[in-house]
Task: structure prediction
Amino acid sequence: SNQVDEKTGKGLREWLLSRGKETGTQRKRECRSISFHDFTPDMRTGMHANVLVAHYSGGGLHERADIRPTTYIDLTTNLPTQATQTWLWFLISRPVLTLSPTETNTNPSPVTDACTIRPPPDFPMPIPTSYVVFACPASNVTEYPDCKDDSAPPDLPAPSTSSMHPLNPSHNRTRTSPPSTAKKIYKRKDYDFSFQGVPIFEFNQASTFHTPGRERFEILSIDNLGSWYPTDASGLCDLPEWQARLSAWEEEVDTLGREERKEDDRAYRDRGLEDPHARRGVWWEMFYQAVYREERKWRRVRECMSRGKCRIVVRWVENGDSGMSDGAGGGIGLGLGIGLGVRM
Result:
């Protein structure tokens, strides 16, 4: 489709949701979590491997996961065909930044008292909602049958309606229903990605943070960073300061030893894609370190997908029914989602 940039994925989410609205096929299944595992065998021994690369929860106050079946047309040609093709798509959304009240590594002075938890003054406010969407033909994915989720927690007593907070956030559930008495059934479904190519990805906050040498960072979220402290600096550094940072960074990269480069390879780190940011202060330094770690995580997901060795595990709970409901709403939301669709 000419609405989707196949290189950056820009427009992918809006296109997927609009197709679901147009065809009236959009439904959703709320999920508990989604996990990404790297099944690439050990190169030296050939032994099977299972490395958890990323895990995201849904179902909390600020997190939600759902499955959305939708009807599609051809993403590349936009031409009608007689044949149909099922596409599989995932959406994960959450705040681009989550601050931890217990993390103190952003404190520039060990004697500084605790402060109000907040990002620096030059951070975008309100904190933006970030999402990643990726989609590909279902024929490029091995899909395993639904099965019982043995990792499910024990059932807890349903909360009484009198104890619920009267002021629900606007992004929370749109309707308040009486507590269900149906037996909860915990399920999981596994997918192996992918064959004949890598899915199209869209990161909506890719251009929000940048450095003088980089205009895009394909990240979802930075989690558990400490607060900014009033004793810390913020704002942009001047040109001589940034040039000094750049010179020091280039010297560090040039003097890397063989073992350090091997360790970088094992960690999916490419220092050639990293360069100094232009912000001042301890907080921003910790933030950009986390940005590069987050970028490496998604690079690893894509690379193991390209080998057909990425296992995605989705978990959800059903209340004695199919677990599917109408999902026509098109807001961003907070959480994650999976969709199936047919190209017409």
Notes: Helices lie at 12-23, 239-254, 258-266, 282-306.
